Every structure is written in structure tokens, then in C-alpha cells.
Amino acid sequence: MSAQRKTSPWSMQFSTLTIVLIPVAIGINYVGKLIAAALKLPLWLDSIGTVLAAMLAGPWVGAISGAANNVIFGLTADPISFWYLITSIAIGFVVGYLAFTGWVSSFGRAVALGFIVGIVATVVSTPINVILWEGQTGNVWGDALYAYLVGNGWPIWLASFLDELVVDIPDKLATVIVSYLILRALPERLASLFAGGRDQVERL
Amino acid sequence: MAVVEVDNLRYRYPRQTTLALDGISFTAEAGEFIGIVGPNLSGKSTLCHALIGLVPHFYKGAIGGRVVVAGLDVHATPVAEMSRRVGLVFQNPFTQITGAKLTVYEEVAFGLEYTGVPREEMVPRIEEALRLLGLWELRDRSPFALSGGQMQRLAIASVLAMKPQVLVLDEPTSQLDPSGTREVFEAVAALCRQGITVIMAEHKIELLAEHADRLLVLHQGRLVADGTPRDVLSRAVRGELENEPAPAPPVTEAAAALGWTMPEGGFPVTLDEAVAVGRAVMAGDSGADSR
Amino acid sequence: MRVSLYVPADTWLHRLDPMTKLLMAAAGVALTFVLARIESGAVLWAIFFTVLGTGRVLRQAGSVFAGVGIIAATFLIVQGLVHPTNATPLIILGPVVFYKEGLLIGLRLALRLYNILSATLVLVLATNPADLTEALVRRGAPARLGYVIMSVLQIIPTMVAQSAAIADAQRSRGMETEGSLWVRVKAFLPLMGPLVTSSLIATEERALALEVRGFGSSARPTFLKPEVRPPHAGLVRIMCVLTLAAGVAGRLLLGW
Ligand SMILES: Nc1ncnc2c1ncn2[C@@H]1O[C@H](COP(=O)(O)OP(=O)(O)O)[C@@H](O)[C@H]1O
Ligand SMILES: [Mg+2]
Questions:
Q1: Domain-by-domain residue ranges, chain A?
Q2: C10 touches chain A (CB under 8 A)
Q3: Which terminus of chain C is more solvent-facing, meaning fewer CB atoms within 10 Å of its CB: N or C?
């Protein structure tokens, strides 16, 4: 046999295993949000599943989990979430790509990844907030900051960006750290089943 | 002609160094009931997966030898294509429910819809499968509202509706109570009589001894015995199988201890046989005693 | 526990096929953005009210509306206080001044929120998700997407039930779930971890089970249930298109 083929994280092969992962990821997002709300945490924690799917199965599966999450909730339970589809997709892509290039290899790197995800989520959500709601987010803390800034003559774009940023950075930091800890606790066999999905069968 | 032909099958899981299956060869005819026995981790599940192509297509890894089922080369055929000739039923009744259907009836339709079976053909096939497994009355229930035995029969009905020639079951009763176990064995025996080849990995050796035509014994990925239950279990009680991978049922052990043999050789493997043999032996003994 | 907001009933709205209701929702969302004036937004909302009312789902819609009430209120308050175009004080409460311009913008945003919600609720409240999914797959959406949607709707109640069981178990072992922020943060992982791990591990078996049911098949799927489209669907579709056209024309010609 020749040396192991180097596979790209962007390969678009969706095995049955990765398809089955998507509803589970969405379920995890939902339960995360529910538990965070039950514990009255000042965070959403509603993208742990998307982040885990991306870590396990790569950027495409991460992005699709994110997209499916918002489409399904948009169509069944929470119509507004539909509009933040692009944010979820971006989270899936960023985590999936960076996870494959070694950003979940240690706790320190996972923390850095959390910051990156927070910034990406903010950058993507801000235009949506501006288009839909003049830049507000509907989150009380963020909107208080927004009101203060706009009241002091800051441009709407910048105020909206900071409004989203103060909410997203702690949230995504916590999300990525929780996901990282869970990923470490998974059995080796499962992680390699996901990682091996793109391998070729050898002949003996 | 044999429906299942396995020739020198070897398989290694990814990132492993030892073979999970090592040089397995056997064949099975239409309507035959074959039991697979062996200790935990001996390769029973891996062999079951290899008959429908989950090994190697799902798990990847490295494969050698040949597996031909219903005329198709498993190593060169996608699992979706194989699934129309071979059905596989797993251990856990709960995870086999697709989770995408709301009723028992729709659950059975799942595989037919995905493989593009026309609607007119679907309806009679579903009804037939549900009636055969005794689930017709429960067709409008939610699959998750069934008992373990009923769920396992639903799993069988679901693969049966695909009209397979071979039904493979991997420890289908290990999570069921005695009545659920009986339900499954009776259903499977009925299918066998209709000409379906049944291959079942199972720990309940008494039940296999009663229903199976042949037993395959696995040990560390190798096939260490292949024969009728009487032949295999008699060798097991005589300690002729290396490492004693297959425990014989208590009747066989007892008969061996008493030296009760069947007229055609070997020890009885079911209670009925033991009773028959025992009666003959006693009759012979008492005849001798009364002089 | 149910995820979907769908309310089974037998009304003209429920009997419509899913694609027609999808068209209604799409036309409604489009109109929300086409119409600029507050009055036109209000008219649109009145139309949605009629549809939701005659479809007998107004009560459920009402609880969704109440749920986002805080967001709508924030729009009014924040824009009324600080929007850059604010010039005319309207309400003065001590040092707090609400301006007319900002309040009107806040009102427009709130109306937009409610109109988008209503448009989607027309579809969501009166359509069985299974029927909607199937209708989409029939029209060429990937069958695997259909699986994902249906599976989500079943998996979530199961996972929520499991998380409740885990919470009970952890509490009986003395875990604190109330108190300072740090106590509550520390409770998150033990509540979440076991559930996530076990549901990820179960993906292997579920994937195997789907594979042996022909899930990976590349054949075009067929459907157990025949598709039915009621006679009034055509009329509703025409009305949707006409309303949308009228809205666009009104906006362009009369500034609606
Ligand atoms: N997914 C897997 N990855 C690596 N090794 C595996 C995997 N599944 C099974 N094995 C190994 O293959 C061997 C046979 O296992 P299995 O077929 O499950 O045995 P049995 O069903 O008889 O208990 C064992 O050594 C087991 O550890
Ligand atoms: Mg096994």
C-alpha cells in the first residue's frame, strides 16, 4: 500500500454517520440552550452541537448542522432564528476548518478558538441586526450598551457591533470550551470513526 | 446453489494491528438456519456486519478474501444495494428505530421509500411483513411506544419488507425478557420455513440448539467449528474445541456426564432429545435389572 | 413535550397543501419588506390576523407574540431614546426624553418583527412538519434533509426527557443548581456532558441501522402517502400573487 492519503477538511463526502450527527447536533444545541436558561446563566449556549459536529466531522457538516438548526427552528418554533442562519453557518465553517488544522489540540488553543468564533459570529450578525432592527440585538445587556453608545453619537454600525460583541464573546468562549471538554471525553473509537469516514478501504 | 459464500475472509479495523476476522470460510443454503456462537469480542458482530457490507464499507479498514451473498460480491456492492438482498437486525431494539417516522406502519415503509419501491408495491409488502411478525394490530402506534420484544419484531418486519433472501441477526434477544426472546425465535423460525436463510449470532445456546441447522463457533476471529448443533456441542462437552469457546447447554453436559448418547452418535442437545434418549436408556437399564 | 408549534385542526388553512402555505408565508415576508409605511404594515398585520383567526390558531399565535413582547418593547425604548434622527420630544419623564422620530422607527421595527412572525406562523401553526418535509422532498429537496428534519422533531423531546432525568440524578447526588453565578456555571457541564456524550455515541448504531434500511441509496425516493391538493389551493395561490403584486405596485406608485 502507498502512504496514507492526506485528506482535505473540505471534502464534501457525507456518510450516513455524518447525516445522523446533524439531528443530534441540533438536539444538543437545543438542550444546551434549555439548561442554560434553567440555570439562569447570562449566556445562550445554543451552539454547542454545531461546534461539536464541526470538530468531529469537519466544516461542511458543521455548517450544515448550523444551517439546519436555524431553518428547522425557524420553520417550527422560533421564526426569528431563521434570519441568523448565516451566523450559524459561519460558526460551523470556522470551527470545522480550524479544528482540522490543530486548534483543538490543547485547552489553551481551544480558548483562542473561542475568541475567534466570538468575533466571527459578531461580524456576521451585525449586518443582520442592522438590516432587521436598526442594529439592536434584543439582548438586554447588549442593547443597554447600544443605547448608551448611540445616545453619545456613535454610528449605528459600530454601536451594533459592540452590542453584539459583548454578548457573543463570553457566549462563544464558553461554548467552545464546553465542546472541547466533551470532545476530550469521547471514546477514541468514536472520534476515529468520524475521522476515518473519508479513508479508503485497503486490501489484505 | 449456496446463497451465502464466504471464502477466506480476513478483516482488520482501522488503526488496529490484529485481525478481527481471520480466514473465515463457510457457505449457507436457502432456508438454512445458522447460529454463530463464541465468547465476547470473538468477532460475531464483525462477521454479521461483513455479510451486508458494513464491514468494510462503513467501518473502512483492511479486507481480504471474498463474500458473495445472493449472487452479489459484497466487497464491490454498496450497502444500500445489499440491503435489498440481506436484512440485518441489531442487538439494541431502541437505536434501530429510524426516529424519522411517527407510526409502526410508516416505520416499515422507511426502507422501501428510500430505495424507491413504487407505492403500489409498498402497501402489500408492509401489510405482509407486519402480519407475519404479529404487529398488524399495532400499526398505528408510535414505534417508541412498543415493548422491547415488539420493537425487535418491528426491526425484523422493517428489513423483511425489503424482501431479503438472507436475514442476519446480531444477538437480537440479548436485551429482551424470556417472552420477548420466544417471540423473536418463533418469528425467525417461521421465516426459515419460508425459505429465507437465517444467520443469527446468539448467546442463548439452548435456543440455538433447538432451532439451528448448523452452528459456527468463533474464537478470536477464527472459525473453530462448523457443524450440526449435535456435532459441535458434543465436541464442546468432550473438550475437543481449543480454548473451549462454546459452552454446551446444561442438558448436553448432563447427558455427557451420564453417558447418554444418541443412536446416531453424539449427545442430545435439547431437552426433548435428552428425555427420549434417557427414556430408552432407563428402559434398557430396567430391562437388564429385572433379569 | 413537543418541539413543533403545529396545532392539528380541520380548517381551510389546515387543509391547504404545505406548498401553498409556504407560498403564503413567502409572500407575507416579502410584503413586510416591500411596504414602507407604518399604516401599510398595520394593514398587513390585520390580514395575517384574519388568516390566523379563521385558521383557528390565533390563540397560539398570541402566545408567540407575547413571547417576543420584550424585544418589541426594547425597540421602542431604545430607538425612542437614541435614534440619530431624533428631534421632536414627545414624552418627557424627568431626565428621560422619548422622541417622536425614534418612537416611530421603533414602532416600525416592532411591526416588522410581528409581521415576519405572523407570516411564518401561518405556515408553522397549521402545517404538520412531516407533511411539509415530504412535500419538499417530493420537489427535489434531498431525502437526507427530510430525514434530518423529522429526526430533529423526534430527537429533541427524547433528549429533553433524558436531560430532566440527569438533572434529577445529579441533584439527588447533591449537586447545587441554584445560588451564585459561579455555582450555576459549574453545574452546566455535569448536566450537559453525560447527555451529549451518550447521544454522540448512539450515532454509530443509528447510522448502522439506517444503512441497512437502504438509507445510502441513490435511487429517487418514493412515498407511502399520495399527495393531495385541495380545490381551494389554486385560488389561495392566485390571491397570494395578486396581493404581492398589489403591494409592490402600491409601494412604487403610491409610496405605501
Ligand atoms: N469499531 C471498531 N473499531 C476497532 N475495533 C473493533 C471495532 N468493533 C469491534 N472491534 C474489535 O473487533 C473484535 C471483534 O469484536 P466483535 O465483532 O464486536 O465481537 P463480538 O460481537 O463477538 O463480541 C474485538 O477485538 C473488538 O475489540
Ligand atoms: Mg457483538
A1: 16-203
A2: no
A3: N
What range defines the domain where residue C69 resides?
14-127+231-256
Determine contact, residues B229/B212, Cβ cutoff 8 Å. yes
Residues with CB in 5 Å of ion ligand 2:
B 45
**Domain membership flag for residue C176:** yes
In tens, the pLDDT along A132-185 reads 888 888 777 888 899 999 888 889 899 999 999 998 999 999 999 999 999 999
Would the ipTM clear 0.85, i.e. be above it? yes
Mean pLDDT of B81-91: 93
**For residue C7, is it within any domain?**
no
In a domain, C22, yes or no: yes
Residue listed under C-alpha cell 397543501: C17
Q: What is the pLDDT of residues B173-220, one digit of tens each?
A: 988 889 889 888 988 998 899 899 999 999 999 999 999 999 999 999
Query: B-C interface: how many C-beta pairs under 8 angstroms?
Result: 102
Q: Do B113 and C207 touch (CB under 8 A)?
A: no
Residues C63, C45 share a domain: yes
Question: Which residue of B58, B119, B144 is in closest CB contact with C211?
Answer: B58
**Choice from B16, B46, B63 to test ligand 1 binding pocket (greatest atom count within 8 A of CB):** B46
Mean pLDDT, residues B90-104 taken together = 87
Q: Are C211 and C147 in contact (CB under 8 A)?
A: no
Which atom of ligand 1 lies at the shortest distance from residue A193's CA? 1
Same domain flag for C80 and C54: yes
Residue written as cell 407511502? C224
**Looking at A2-11, A46-55, C1-10, which range is the least confident one?**
A2-11
> Which atom of ligand 1 is found nearest the CA of B49?
17
Give the pLDDT confidence score for residue B246 in this predicted structure. Answer: 66
- Closest Cα to atom 11, ligand 1: which residue? B20
- Measured CA angle at C24 (ends C134, C58), to 5 deg: 95
C158 and C59 co-located in one domain:
no
In this complex, is the C-beta atom of B84 within 8 Å of any C-beta atom belonging to chain C?
A: yes
CATH fold for the domain made of A16-203: Arp2/3 complex 21 kDa subunit ARPC3 (1.10.1760)
